[in-house]
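Sync notes, pocket subgroup
Present: LS, DG
LS reminded everyone that the earlier model was apo-only. Rerun requested with pyridoxal-5'-phosphate included. Inputs:
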Amino acid sequence: MSTSWKTRTKLVHEGSRRSQYGEVSEAIFLTQGFVYDSAEAAEARFIEAGDDEFIYARYGNPTVAMFEDRMAAIEGTEDAFATASGMAAVSGALTSMLKAGDHVVSARALFGSCLYVLEEVLTRYGVEVTFVDGTDLDAWRAAVRDDTKVVFLETIANPTLEVIDLRAVSEIAHAKGAKVLVDNVFATPVFSNAVEQGADVVIYSATKHIDGQGRTLGGVILGSKDYIRKTVEPYMKHTGGSMSPFTAWVLLKGLETLDLRVRAQAATALALSQALAEHPKLLRAIYPGHPGHAQHALTMSEMGSGGTMIALDVAGGKEAAFRFLNALEIVKISNNLGDAKSIATHPATTTHQRLSDEQRTVLGITPGLIRLSVGIEDGDDLVADVLGALGHA
Ligand SMILES: *Cc1c(COP(=O)(O)O)cnc(C)c1O
């Protein structure tokens, strides 16, 4: 494989391993184990497995290895470890490198399950976690200490779409010797420059844009060879969060069209944000790629695009938001994102229901807030669907 290839070429070809049959489409190796030619060969492989030698699917598998190699190539990291879900990736990346007494600083606006891992799980094992407003660089400066081991953030916060200055936070963290872990779902691998901007570890829920067709759960942890093979792999392979070969195959197929899908979704999201700006039924239309977004300049320098997600604050609170949701025809009410199908979510009553009213207020999750994941349908149809439904709000 060539390092000079651009992303779209890598998404189709990078990491392919062909069997003796020369298949065009990647093979699914639905096998949990591998046969050795001799007892000596088994012994040798357990001492050190070569790049194309496998032992047990929890440790690695040829189809999973193709997915890992392709992801590392497009993200620009030395290595990758594929996991059973995005949360297996987030919890594995953190737990594998932390121990009692360590200090973590995290942005407060997080995906609900990430918040659970940091707030409820890690602290139970004696890890100290400090939460900050991720957009406030002074808050990061005040919170990161000489003994801080990890800084954790989502580059674009779910669901309010605030953008964190990754380059600046990385400088603050690295000055104290802390590692920067980024949950990069909203940026997508297409628009991510996380490694260049200072991230040491990048995590994706592959359930989202990478599959992009709502079929499977999956995740991936990307980082240096040393971190992936010496820290993450031993932890994941012994605790059981590895990816299944069937999932890896679905995701390899997803990667082939990732760039085409995500760029089309982002183009429609921008058109939709323009159609919704100043709409009388909305208190706010939030899209980081719209010039009216408070962090538009930062977004464009960080990702060159506003991504595939929009947030709308419907005037009239929950009742108006529900009337809007129920009037949508193309856009489906669900809670995945990054899918080919456009999806609308009411965070206050679903994904962020567990939070107190006070926590929701701090995070900007108002009763009228709708999170819209823009799909690959015709852009004009989507604009008409959303504007039509707003008429009912
Ligand atoms: C969906 C999501 C996850 C969890 O991924 P799963 O594949 O559902 O386990 C983690 N972080 C972010 C930002 C997400 O959007």
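DG: The first strand starts at residue 79 and ends at 83.
LS: Residues 7-254 form a domain with the Aspartate Aminotransferase; domain 2 fold (CATH 3.40.640.10).
Action: DG to write up.
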